[in-house]
Structure formats: structure tokens, C-alpha cells
Amino acid sequence: MKKDTSLISDNQAEAGVIATLVHHPEFILHTDYLKPSYFYNVENGCIYWAISELYKNGVDNIDAMNITNMLNSNRAVKKQIESHNLTNMQEFIDMSQYACRDTFDEYKLLVKNVVTMSFKRDLNRVANEIQSMCFNEKADLSQVNQTVNKKINHLTEQYVTTNEVEMFGTKVDSLWQEVRDRCTDSGIYGIPSKFEHLNEYLTYEPGELVLLKARMKKGKSAFFLNEAMHKLKNRVPTLYLDTEMKDRLFYERMLANLTGIEVKRIKQKKYSDEEAKLLDKTNEWIKKQPFVHIYIPTSTDEEIYAIHKILKYKMNLEFSIFDYIKSNVTSASENYNVLGARCDFLKNNVAGDLDIALLAGAQLNRGDQVADSDKIERYVSASLWWRDKDGDKVQKDGLKCGNYALTVDLNRLGEQMSEDEYIDFMFDGSKMRISEAQQHITKRTPFE
Fold first, then answer.
1. Contact (CB, 8 A) for 163 and 105
2. Which of 43, 64, 65, 247 qualifies as a cystine partner to 90, CB 3.0-4.6 A?
3. SS3 230
4. Residues in contact with 246: Cβ distance below 8 Å, sequence separation at least 6, in sequence order
5. Whole-angstrom distance, CA of residue 327 vs CA of residue 330
6. Would you say 433 and 228 are in contact if contact means Cβ atoms under 8 Å apart?
7. Cβ atoms 410, 398 nearer than 8 A
8. Strand 238-242 relative to strand 291-295: parallel, antiparallel, unpaired?
């Protein structure tokens, strides 16, 4: 049975808001989240719009003539008014003194009630739409899930309200306390990387997105795996969204990384009795970890957000890896837009909204670029360039300086490297282990 939506309204609150603004139009500046469409009574919504427009134009004398002239100045609003029996404006102004609130706090309470009622009406409408979909036999689980998330997220975003604009000085105490709380006694803030030299440039901070760039088949996933295992050893709840590897393949590499037994020998069961015991012990350890690996070759933004939000509540998710950002679009220009949009979504909607530290990957082309890198890197907090060293570079640096290099080439979280700077690493692909190598010494001429 369909219920009367007029029951989800508060005419007294609506009238009180309008009456207050007649006498205190300056209050409207502090509640700009209140929209004319939030009023159930169309007449109240139109008058609210007129007062708002008058005040924006510098008119603070809110009388019957000014309101009437403003209402008649807009064809759409005028049409709305003509379809309703508009109250005698002068009579309304005269009566407003009795419904007017003289303090801003009282006015805010009225506004809050108007917005709340509007939200409930819209939520009721969305609920009815979702209910209809539930009775649609052709709607599968994925469609229903995406629709629910999309509609609910859109609704909550629409009704974001802001309080009175504050002077920055009023926030200093709380911000200073937040800065102090984020830093440990050892001077580390955020979630540290496994690699100490990288920590000198950045850590994985909640709300921020770090992008790792590398050529195809050059160890992106190995880097992610090493960071993920490091987080688990430090009891950091971690999610690994994997567009490439199913659970079994990832698990084999995970075992190799944790035990030091080569992937090939694990797959072929060519390990000693002692190593078998180590594998059993490692499996028991893995079972107890706050870790989730999901093979997700294709995904929508809604699915990615839902997974993170569920795990945020289920295991207090702190660190997430997205391996990796890609697109199946063939058009180059459209592909750049898709990659940029996904990067924006991960940074703002996942890392930002859910307060999660996020590490994602992107694939470099033959020119060592990520599609239209400007459209991607404009959204990231830091960008890392991961690559193997060629023979000349290995020989120049020395064998002890490893076979891989990492450059922090964009960094909004700390210091940035110059183009010729890099951190030296040793990558053992057979055991999926990455460690910091002896760091090379850059020789400079007297003229540099």
C-alpha cells in the first residue's frame, strides 16, 4: 500500500525558515546546502529561491514587492507559482514576525528538519524503485547491487551538508593534535614501506594514493606482494585487488616470499622435510592474518567501493593494493579518460572517503609513459617508477647495488628525486623477494 508522502513533511519548519529569512536574510549564507527543491510546499520553495536571489544581488530589504518581482523575473518559477494559489505576499510578510526565529541556532534546527524530511522523501522514492527492481526477474545480482550502490551513494552525496564557515584559526588546535597523533615515537607517520630508503621520501598515508609505474612483466606484482607481506607482519589489515592473478598463483608466490623457497620447487613439491614443516607453519600463520586477496579482472567503481567499505567495517581495513589500473577501451583518447577517471575515483572516493592508504599500479608503454600520464598523475599523491637495470647500469653501479631501481618522480607527500636519482634494489624473482641493495654512489664532476 502506497503511503502519503505529505506525512513526511514539516510545514511549520518550512514556514519558520522563510519567516526567519525575511527578517534575517544574512542567515542564508550559512546554510547554502538548503535547496528550494527540499521544500515539500512548492510555494515555500519558490519564496526561498526569491530571497536567496535577492540577497545574492545585494538586496537585504526583503519585502512583498521585492519578492514578487523576483518571482516574476523567472519564467519557470513564475509558471510554478501560477499553478499554485500563492499566499497574499504582504499578508505573509506581516505574519512572518510571529514565526521568525531571532537566533541562528534556532534557524539551523528548522533548516535541519526541512533537509531531513526532504531526504526521507527521496529515500522513500529510491526504496520504492529498488523494491520494483527486486520483483523484476531479469535483474541479476550484479545489476541490483550496482543500482542500489549507485542510487544510495548519489542520494547521500546530494545531501551533504556543511556547517557555518570557520576561520582557519579555530581549527588549529585540533589539526595540531591530529599531526602529533599521526606520528609514532620513532618519527614514522602513516604506514611505513618495507623499504627504509623509500620511507625517507614518503609513507602510505590514509586518504592518499601512491602509484607504482613499470613496464609489462617487470615486477609490479612482486613489489606489491612484498609490501603486502610487510604490512601483515606488522598487523596492518590489508586488501589486495588483483586484475591478473587468481588465488592459487598468488598463493604460490606468497608462500615463496614468506618462506624463501623457490616458486618452482613449491609447485613441483621438490622441498625437504624441514622445508615442508616451514610451509605448514607458514600456512597456519597466513590463516590468522587480516588479509583479503580478490581476483577481479574487470570491475566497476561501485564494486570496488563496496568491497572497500565492507572490509573497512569487517576488519578495519587500513591498507589496500590495486594491481593494476587498466582499460579495455581501444580509442587512445577515451582510454586516457578512463584511466584518469579510475585514478580519480581511487584517490577521492576510496582512499579519501574511507580514509584508507592505497597503493595502485599502472603499466608503462615502450616510451616509459602511462598513457596520457598528466590525466592520471594529477590525481595521485606520489608516483614511483620501478624498473630493471640493464647490463651497463649493473656494471656501472656494481653487483652489490642490485638489479632494480626505483625513482620517486612525483611526490606531494615529501621530497622528490631528480631524474637521475634512484634507490637500488635486489629482486629475486624465483623467491618473489625484493630487498634494498647497497646504494650506488653518484659521481659528479667539479662543474656540477
1. no
2. 64
3. helix
4. 295
5. 8
6. no
7. no
8. parallel
Backbone torsions φ then ψ of 386, nearest 5 degrees: -110, 130
Rg (CA), the chain: 29
- Sign for the CA dihedral angle at 151, 153, 156, 160 comes to negative
Provide the grid cell at 177. 593534535
CB 321 within 8 A of CB 228: yes
Q: pLDDT for 165-215, tens place per residue?
A: 567 777 788 888 877 877 666 667 889 999 999 999 999 999 999 999 998
The DSSP-derived string for 42-76 is HHHHHHHHHHHHHHHTT-----HHHHHHHHHH-HH
Q: Which residues is 181 bridged to in the sheet?
A: none
Rounded CA-CA distance 302/58 in Å is: 43
What pLDDT, in 10s, does the model give residues 257-311? Answer: 999 999 999 999 999 999 999 999 999 999 999 999 999 998 888 889 989 999 9
Burial 91-125 (b: 16+ CB within 10 A, else e): ebbeebeebbbeeeeebbebbebbbbbbbebbbee
As a whole number of angstroms, the distance between CA 193 and CA 229 comes to: 11
**Is the separation of the CB atoms in 359 and 225 below 8 Å?**
no
DSSP 8-class letter at 204: B
Cell numbers found for residue 309: 567499505
Q: Which helix (H) or strand (E) holds 157?
A: helix 141-158
Q: What is the pTM of this model?
A: 0.67
pLDDT in tens, 413-439: 888 898 889 999 999 999 999 999 999
DSSP secondary structure, 162-199, as one string: ------GGGGHHHHHHHHHHHB-TTS-BSBPPS-HHHH
Give the CA count within 13 Å in the CB-facing half-sphere of 373: 19
Cβ-contact 301, 342 below 8 angstroms? yes
Q: Which residue has the cell 523494491?
A: 131
CA dist 397 to 163, 337, 390, 405, Å? 57, 39, 11, 11
